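Lab notes, practical 5.
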Amino acid sequence: SSGINAEYGDPVVMGNINKPQNMSLIDDITFGVYQDSEVAKVIQQLEHKKHLAIEEERYELAKRLKQAIGDLYSVGEKLGRLEREKKAAVAEENYDLAQARKVQADEIRVVVFEQLNIRSLLQVDRLPTDDTPKVLVRSPPHQLPALTDHPPPNLPSPQPGVPYQQPPSAVPSVLSAHSEALSSEPQRVVNSRSSDRPIPTLANKTAQELEEQEPETPARDPDGPDEHSMKVAHDLNNAVELFTQRTVACLFCKQFALRDKGMTEISAVLAELDTSAPNYSIRGLVQVFKQAFTDPVHTTLTLNLDTFKTLIKRDVLSKNHTVELCNQTLPILLKRVGENVRNRELIVSSFLELSKTTHLSESPTIPNISVSVCKEKNPKVLAGRLALLDNLLEKAGPNNAYSVDLVMKFVAPALSNTSREVRDAGIKITQQMYRQFGDPVRKYLPKDEPVLRKKQLIWKKIFESFDEIDGKPVHKPNEPSAEEKKAAQVAALKAELASLREMAASANIDVPEELQPGNEHMKMGGGKKKKKKGPAAGKPAPIPEEKTDAGELEDTLDKTCMFCNEHNDKFNAETLDVHFWRSCPMLSRCAHCSQVVEIAGTSTHLLTECSARDKFSACGECQLAIATGDKHTCSTVPGAGETLCPLCQVPVRDGEEGWRDHLMGDKGCSRNPRRS
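Output from the prediction step:
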């Protein structure tokens, strides 16, 4: 009715093309990926025989072929997995595992072929006719050899042409089965196609040879390393050749007692180490100590480090091998300096001892390792590494291998770290390097500017410490100024005067009226010299010595300028301030802040106290305060114990008498406007 003229049974009309029930297993896209190559070829041959049996209407034979193909398909996937594991083991150079997987695959292949009677199925012409059908019992999947490193037990040889019946016992070994098969009458496989080739078997080997190839599994030692540790140690070929696999495996055990035992055995071998022996290699030592330095137990790590230091101190290794061993292993210790205090002290002391050995003291190995680039962000690790560097610098002393460029490239980033402990350690090392090398250290730091000192305290602290090292005047925040010191002296003198008053009152001595408490305003009056007055009527005469001392002390305090020593009876609190402000030749007013300061301390005032101190900097030669941007030439350089006058730039000897002679003498400073 549809107008299509097609014969009955046409696959296009009947819809038999690409029907799932008519698709073969070999048509699956994953067939060639996951199947064993040998099994895949057998499946293809059986699939061809099945189609021939269907065409000849031998359905009993087709049924048997279908069952065999299904069993071979599942077994082929297991063999394919073994083949992939064997290739992976070869890539990792684990040849023992590769050999085990090869033996397993051969055993499974032979056992399955004999169980399913593949030879008879491939020889179609020798199969019995369908008139005497035989029942084929399929082997359950769980009765196939297990995919383990141990070979299956013995398997008896089946008779040719007789269907196989699964015995109740476990699957026998392929080795005995194969030996019996070899002794029986050989059977030739008839290939239906010229392109097919015989399945490779173990026919050319005897059972004794197969047993010799069987891998032996050593017995587990309860007091020795576990299987995992043995496998890990097996990959360290150089270390195994030098110390044996069992000794190296002890270093990878979970029990610290076994790790101690392993290192003790290694120490015994190193005590008799011969570098000319054929089994010696520096790579073996590197492999051992790389693992040893990662031990988390402090006592075991101490033992490992002692063994390492003993080896280096004995000078058994050549200098090149010593340097290579340290370069490969010591960086592991640098990552552990931040774990705890005990490990830090142990590692620091070990580095100090190693730096004094014969080979390492002559090479820059330890300095290069200690200042190597640190990518660790943990502040404890950074602080530990800086502490290690500080100790090494202190022990190395001058003329060492720690150059400015080497150290400051490592320390400079630590000065900006967010951790205070790291910054303090970096500041300490920077100051130590500045004492030794001086100005070259500054090029690794920001430019010293007043604005930077004012905004960031860390740079202020660093640059002020540089000034202090250079001998420049530095005003410390907690240190009192010159005015505060003199005010403290005046207060001490007034306290002494009060004690004298108490002494006079206790001795019934007549105290002058101007020295009575509360009459301080009277103390500022009088002339240049006080006239002695007689004792008042009816009162005992005062003691002359005590009265004289009290009067002189009062004159010194209240009627004498503490700077120029000018004595004037008219001096009082107000007149002294006027004297300081206008006429004292030892003082001058600051042109920037209008504060009255000593001429001798003008440079210190401009650099530390003045509100305009950001505009001044100290000259490196004459130490005078120079305005920023001004061109300054030192006409005179002061000698030892001398300071340049800021007015006339003439050297003046230090001390009050020297400055008083220069500023007030007849031949003194010609630029002092208050000089009479």
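Observations recorded by the TA: Confidence is low (pLDDT under 50) at residues 1-8, 126-199, 520-548. The first helix runs from residue 11 to 14.
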